[in-house]
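Memo to structure team: turn this sequence into structure tokens by end of day. - J.P.
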Amino acid sequence: MLMDELSVKIKIADREYPMKVNRKEEEKVRAAGKLINEKIKYYKDQFGIDDKQDLLAMVAFDCLVDKMAEEVSLQEIDQTVVEKVNQLNQLISQAL
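Reply from structure team:
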């Protein structure tokens, strides 16, 4: 094991998963595990689902939808930045 790696156990849906993580990523990994468990609890409470596989599938789907929405948002931001840079380039060209 490298010096900047830690062995941690992350509990998801009442099952522990041992993993090696970069020391700098430990907090993020633990937060991700906590968020997954919170989403599992939400779906269990909201819909009365007890099957772990169904709950995990719903959480995975939810996470992917969120990620796709963020990607669209980032693309829109990128497009806006490109447009602003082009406008600035035009202004600079006109000034010269």
